[in-house]
Write a structure and sequence with these properties.
376 residues, 25% strand, binds flavin-adenine dinucleotide, single chain, 17 strands, globular, 15 helices, alpha/beta, 8-stranded mixed sheet
Length: 376
């Protein structure tokens, strides 16, 4: 089978790896507009369950990825200067750049052709020259836009603003920090992903953003302002920018996932708010589900029908949970009157997927403190 892939992010690379692993005779080529070392973003997170899926799909890359990991089992909630730790939440973080390098090496080892610095504009030409065109071209997918009539995307630009920074302050666990100033409430989502660096994502509602005056600020001033809001948490460390800009979260859904020989995966197909886990996990698990469909069906159409049929319910369930979580953060200001232990409890149960009983199993001590409404 001849497979053309647009986009050498986690989704495109991992699908290429899995298809070559399954059949060395497949001809697989990735077109990537960036170079092999250009990337944005800081760390990405995986749950213990996702790691098990990655191991089952490809032990070689799994072994490389886990060598680079920073692991933790706690969510920390910081509110009014008190830190509440909730244990029993197993996650790991790795640098996005490291992950891409591992996947690039593995793909090349399996004879996947990767053409870097190759931006695709003429999607139709590439589509007519292969059995399968994989659109793994990210949240602003060119392929999705080109065939919008067929995919019928639903794009929802959310009102909150967020910005991805890094920092050398190490957050040992997924840390959710709330700070207020005269402009409003700011939430930071942070976790370490290497022995020296953490991801630090800051989110605020549009009123807070406008009142803080970010529209008039350049990147240095923005960095200084945000650093100031979280000065106590950063412990003297600076925020690090990687061309970081305020963005609005784009919620992506598609009514149709494929047509003829073109299929969307990863961020091109769907997004889930970053507060519930990373888009990288979903992108790689899409690649696994699609490659599995080609194991079951030789015919492209049959495989794509199977992919959409089996994967759509999983994604819809995940997006529903992520939607609740996103709404919680959009309305974070209304929870600031809660005590730290109460805030930690409503945060842990915000998506509707984690119950009192689940938390009792994960961290009975936390639930005992919550029942007593202890602040510390
Ligand atoms: C600014 C920003 C920062 C982020 N940082 C993080 C982070 O730190 N941690 C995290 O977990 N998630 C992060 N994310 C989300 C994460 O990137 C995605 O959820 C995940 O990477 C999805 O994987 P993907 O392969 O579907 O898409 P992507 O990783 O976006 O990969 C798509 C690839 O397609 C390429 N491409 C796009 N169009 C074309 C074209 N026409 N021709 C050729 N190539 C093309 C792009 O260059 C890119 O390499 C970030 C997202 C953004 C927008």
């Amino acid at each position: 089978m001849k497979i053309n892939i647009i986009g050498g992010g986690p989704a495109g690379l991992y699908f290429a790896i899995l298809m070559k692993k399954a059949g060395a005779s497949h001809q697989v080529k990735i077109y990537e507009r960036n170079g092999p070392d250009d990337t944005f973003g800081w760390g990405v997170v995986f749950s213990g369950k996702t790691l098990a899926n990655l191991r089952a799909a490809d032990e070689v890359s799994h072994a490389e990825i886990t060598k680079q990991f920073e692991a933790w089992d706690n969510v920390d909630v910081v509110h009014r200067d008190a830190k509440i730790s909730i244990h029993g939440n197993s996650f790991s973080g790795v640098a996005r750049l490291q992950l891409l390098k591992i996947l690039q090496r593995r793909a090349e080892q399996l004879d996947v052709e990767i053409e870097f610095h190759s931006e695709i504009h003429d999607v139709e030409a590439l589509r007519s020259d292969c059995d399968l065109l994989l659109a793994a071209d990210g949240v602003n997918s060119t392929v999705r836009a080109r065939y919008a009539e067929q995919f019928r995307p639903e794009l929802d630009v959310r009102a909150n603003r967020y910005i991805w920074y890094g920092t050398h302050q190490l957050f040992h666990g997924l840390t959710l920090t709330f700070r207020e100033n005269s402009a409003g409430v700011f939430a930071a989502h942070s976790y370490k992903f290497s022995p020296t660096t953490s991801t630090f994502i800051v989110e605020c509602d549009p009123e807070t953003w406008a009142k803080a005056g970010f529209e008039q600020m350049g990147s240095e001033e923005t960095l200084a302002y945000v650093g100031d809001v979280f000065a106590q948490d950063l412990n003297g460390h600076k925020l690090l920018s990687n061309n970081s800009k305020w963005i609005n979260f784009l919620l992506v859904k598609n009514r149709k996932w494929f047509f003829e020989n073109v299929v969307l995966i990863g961020d091109a197909l769907h997004t889930a708010h970053f507060s519930i886990g990373s888009g990288t996990k979903l992108a790689m698990e899409d690649a696994i589900a699609l490659a599995d469909s080609f194991q079951e069906y030789l015919d492209v159409r049959d495989a794509l029908v199977h992919f959409e049929k089996t994967r759509r319910p999983v994604i819809e369930d995940y997006q529903a949970a992520a939607f609740e979580s996103m709404r919680w953060f959009e309305n974070a200001a209304q929870y600031m009157n809660l005590s730290p232990i109460e805030l930690a409890y409503v945060l842990m149960t915000r998506s509707g997927r984690v119950s009192y009983e689940d938390l009792m199993k994960r961290d009975p001590d936390f639930i005992r403190r919550y029942d007593r409404r202890d602040n510390f």
